[in-house]
Amino acid sequence: IIWVDHSATSPFKDNLYAIWHNDLPAFMNRRTGPAGSWQTAIQVSGAESIGTAIGADVKTNAFGDVFGFWPTTGNQKVFVVKSTNGGVSYGTPVQIATTFGGFDIGIPSMDSRRALIYVSAGAYRTAGGKNLVYASWTDLSGAAGCNTPGNEPGSNAASTCKSRVWFARSTDGGATWGAAVKLNDQASLNDQFNQWMVVDETTGALEIMYYDTVADSGRKKVDVWAQSSFDDGVTWSPAVKVTSAQTDETVTGADSGNQFGDYNGLSGIAGQYFPSWTDRRNNAREEIWTAKVTDLACTPPGAPAIGTATATAPNQIQVTWGNGSPAASAFNVYRATGTCASPGAFALVGSAVAGSPFTDGTVSGTIHYAYQVKGLDATGHCESAASGCVEATATGPCTLPPAFAGLASIGNQAAAICGLTLSWAAATPTCAGPITYNVYRSTTPGFTPGPGNRIANGVTGTIYNDIGALTNGTTDYYVVRAVDVSNGLEEGNTVIRSAAPTGAVASILTDTFEGVGGFDNPGWTHAKLQGTGDWVLSTAQSQSPTHSWLSVDESPIAERVLISPAFTPQAGTTLTFWHTFAFENQTNCYDAGTLEVSTNGGTSWSVMPDAAFQEGGFTGTVNAGFSNPLTGKRAWCNGTIGPMTRVKVDLTSFAGSPLQLRWHEGDDESIAATGWYVDSVNVANVGVCSANGLFYDGFESGDLGAWIGKAP
To answer: In degrees rounded to 5, what are phi and psi of residue 332?
Structure first.
């Protein structure tokens, strides 16, 4: 990214600044003045940054201060570095925030390409004492179940995990930073990504644009939306849609080789802004579009003077307030559950209300609520600071469902009769309770729970055994929802978990890599075939309990192997292992790792067939250029270091032959990354289970209506 210092008051006016990542570290350079030249590049990141500093930005302010920003793919942080001498030297990097994702996020509109966690930033300094620095980026929402890379929604439009645009600001020139906030955290299942931000240097106003799938229930079609801030990033205007038609980059014929919109742009001055974006509306050709966005200057009104909150009728609370100074033209009313001393998150319940009072008719009896009011100027874009807080307990019936995190896990019973055991943490009643649970099952991923797929209702415990209607090896998908018996309301979580039942499982090789020399069993070997590095035992990542084997990605050409002891599989034998990896490049398969097999004692090796994988199969084919020793082979490519994921392989096709497994990484002639962690290898003979007999009742629902009893 290149930035020009065009401020008339800057001592370094007309300097050009560039920031980029050179393999892993971040570098910056400057070109002095209109007639100057590029100087010597400076590495600005260090040991604080783990992984690649890809997705950087550079900005200056009216005093000539230079700021470089970058995210990291390894330790998932955002950093800023500052120069006060026109880029001659830079200070120590300062952490802005920690991200939930790492480098990229799979969302329905960008499932294969993946949305990138890039930084867009700004700076604004005045002679009057303002010294503001801003940063924005795309990340997971951070909510429960959406705060690690493994939570990303991928192609699942029903997932409650979603991406959001995040923002952080510094009021002391970048030395310290406030907590990051989400600019527009809608309750709906939609994704925001590919944001870009600009500071209006004439006023200090902020403008940000981004893609949002909020108008598409399938989470694939995007519009461009924009938001403004007129109070140094403290508050933001409601989002305004810029585009007049949607873009769907998931349709057949779209160029899926790279991201779209990752270098969207935004320019602005004196209240006039021009976003530019990638657009292929109506499935037409890929084009670059722009639009003029005009922000009317505004002065935020004074904070309203809060009055009272009173339960005036069943399921109603009336809130009163007085106008502030300067006076507001309308008001937004916000509500949170809890007390004013300890409220939950405030959410808008009354929009552009003409004046006091406001009656909130959406409250639940017995629940305590807190209220704040904010004033709006005549444009409706400028919102005041919040009023004081008032609180009240609603009367009337309690009308809220329980709070429930959903199904936690599914265990295979591994018995003669096909069975799965579902378990979850108890729900918390919001109303009187007690709590029961409904269980839903389907063979369709992403299914919608309903009466037609409900297999149990009124379950009173936190475990459900599903036995009697399952098929060996067939994956079933489950949702569990909590019901408050006092009001009959079912909450609506969309957590879906899956499993496939089998017969008895007998392990023939299990290794957690915790024994002497890094192995629990004899017969393991490892070696470097090319390059300088071999597989090494590591504690940086593990699945159980503390160690794994690591193949460090190298440059130039290298390859190394980790080889299992020999064993003889039979029909139904499966291999499972856990891994996490980050190889060079996120779009092309330059460095990679593959799984190989040998049936002749290691004399020759072949790549595991794609058809053998039941979970976590290969993600690409190794690029034919740049001399990777694995050229043309199927392998795991790209990746981001995060929680380990499971790979499951059916070894039935090798039944009866002594078999060895080989984890084989190959690196091409340029650029290195983190590498490949492997842990918890298990080879097991898996039996076949059968469907139950004529009928089955696990007595989980408590419904004995189909049974009769007779006293002796």
So the answer is: -110, 130
DSSP per-residue letters across 502-520: -S-EEEEEEE-S-SGGG-S
Which single residue is written with the structure tokens 């369709």? Answer: 444
178 DSSP assignment: P
Tens digit of each residue's pLDDT (9 = 90 or more) over 99-111: 998 888 989 998 8
The yes-or-no verdict on residue 703 having pLDDT over 70 is: no
Yes or no: say if 91 and 37 are a contact pair by the CB < 8 Å rule.
Answer: no
List the one residue out of 186, 334, 207, 358 whose CA is nearest residue 268. 207
H or E segment to which residue 29 belongs: strand 26-31
What's the average model confidence in pLDDT over 261-279? 91
Q: Which two tokens stand for residue 584?
A: 């060079």
Domains delineated in the chain:
2-294 (2.120.10), 305-393 (2.60.40.10), 409-499 (2.60.40.10), 505-686 (2.60.120.200)
- Residue 443 confidence class, pLDDT cut points 50, 70, 90: very high
The conformation of residue 403, written as its DSSP 8-state character, comes to B
Question: pLDDT per residue over 610-639, tens digit each?
Answer: 999 999 999 999 998 889 999 999 999 988
Residue in the block written with tokens 């007085």: 322
CA 482, CA 460: separation in Å to the nearest integer?
Answer: 10
**Collapsing DSSP states into helix, strand and coil, what is residue 463?**
strand
Residue among 146, 182, 109, 645 nearest 406 (CA) = 146
Q: Which of 491, 480, 425 has its CA nearest to residue 457?
A: 480
In a 3-state reduction of DSSP, which class is residue 489?
Answer: strand
